[in-house]
Amino acid sequence: MSSSAARGLAPWRWLGVPMLIAMAATFIFALPLRFFGLGLPEPVFALPLAFAWAVIRPSMLGPVAVLVLGIFLDFLWGSPTGFWAVCLLLPYGVVLAARSILAGQSQVMMFLWYAAATVLALGSGYLFTMLDTQTHPDPVTVGWQFLATVVLYPFANMLIERFEDADVRFR
Hints:
Layout: H1 11-29, E1 34-35, E2 38-39, H2 46-56, H3 61-77, H4 83-97, H5 99-102, H6 107-133, H7 139-150, H8 153-163
Antiparallel strand pairs: 1-2
């Protein structure tokens, strides 16, 4: 077999390594650093992974990894335990259900689906926060977080392109 053949789909390669990178990036962006009086944006680095993992293949490990990332975000950002896990599992489930529709779509359509998944995650977080605190979060801040998360689509696309065809059972 040649070295250019598709490598196997080991869970540590498509789940573990990206999850650790997302955790490290989230931690770095959560540091209280200020440049020219402005803090770093706080994108949801876990969302591109949740989107990509749902598109790549159905797996029992994907939702568990999304749950772990959500609980990590809960502890890091001080939100109630399970808040971000639910906010990430909702778009994961929707994208997983629409996986057959997403197969073979153009980059523009994949980006629109990713943006819709981001709206679902942040919108559900906005709604849950309103229900919990009886007040609404600042829409401008949520909008900036949405923009900061949407620009992470190339990372989701890179992960999808790298591992989409690695497991021939799901072609």
